[in-house]
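Board notes, transcribed. Complex of a protein with cobalt (II) ion.
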Amino acid sequence: MPFDSHGHIIPGAYPAPRTVPADIQRPPYVGLKTPPAYTGDNTYTEAEIDLIRAAGRISSGALDAVGAAIRPGITTAEIDRIAHEYVVAAGAYPSTLGYRGYRASSCTSVNEVICHGIPDDTVLREGDIVNVDVTSYLDGYHGDTNRTYRVGEVSEEVDLLIERTHEAMMRGIKAARPGREVNVIGRVIETYAKRFGYGVVRDFTGHGVGSSFHSGLIIPHYDSAPSYADIIKPGMVFTVEPMLTLGTHEWTQWNDGWTVTTRDKSITAQFEHTVVIREDGFELLTVSE
Ligand code: MF3
Ligand code: CO
Ligand code: CO
């Protein structure tokens, strides 16, 4: 029962909980209701950046594996199994598993789901889209990334939304330069998205990431000035993860406490990278190879 008679997504049945070998290091929040407070800042040494990149590479590889498997007929639970097995086989812990009570190793957000969709027995159909978000924890550091996939062929309108959401993320990342305020990222993303009349989600943001999954630093995807005025510095690590919609930016949440959908049930896409700021630009930390 994953779609109602209007074709809108509804909650399904969860798979059995997935297990992680005991020898894989768990993040400190696993088993706690809320993560311990983070006291560090958002800049890292080169040695630490190497570790975030190693975690990010695993997350990116998991998304490569997922992408190779997505086709009409696959369930979001199967997608989660592929991501889980990839991350664990690489010796890492899937950061979402046990984060604030979240039950899965990825988020799978279908069609009008903006983010935080929980994998279940939903069978994907030709023309659907699904965002898969994977974070890996390795040697004390997290790497967080997501991509939106087409299931078979999608409409031109949806195809363009996906393409332009990726472009919006890259433009936001390229705008991040030392000395600027982090709100420049949102300004660039929103300006680009508005050219096409897309909704720009405001209440879910990018974030500092590294030794903590969500450090407290907020990266807006809309023009928030004068808010979110933290100055960008070399060595700073954070995510940029815009969510754009074919309708408005307004959202609602399911009773599961996680799944966020557009209020108008318009289709929505997202992409995410973890990046480090360099003196003269940026480096993506969530890439394969
Ligand atoms: N990976 C998501 C992000 O980009 C966070 C997911 S938290 C979860 O920040 F608990 F929903 F998995
Ligand atoms: Co993130
Ligand atoms: Co993510």
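Residues 46-69 form the longest helix (24 residues). The CA atoms of residues 201 and 249 lie 5 Å apart.
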